[in-house]
Amino acid sequence: MALEREKETHRRRQRREKIRKLRAKYAAAATAAERDRIAKKIKAISPDAPLQTGK
Q: How far apart are CA 29 and CA 24, in angstroms?
């Protein structure tokens, strides 16, 4: 049981880190096409995740 929970936690942490990196790229994107491409990647990973943080 504990192993399955560890795997789940690992997946969640990896997903969170990847979304964090993609949000940074989204904020730094120069063109609308680039932002659109990155937004699609974020939505594919986590459909409910916002594109930008509230900071």
A: 9
Q: Which of 20, 9, 30 is nearest to 50 (CA)?
A: 20
Q: Give 35: exposed, middle or buried? Use CB within 10 Å, 0-12, 13-18, 19+.
A: middle
Longest alpha-carbon distance in the chain: 46
DSSP character at residue 54: -
Length of the chain: 55
Q: Which residues contact 35 (CB under 8 A, 6 or more apart)?
A: 26, 29
The pLDDT value recorded for residue 53 is 75
Minimal CA–CA distance to 45: which of 20, 9, 8, 10? 20
**pLDDT band with cut points at 50, 70 and 90 for residue 11:** very high
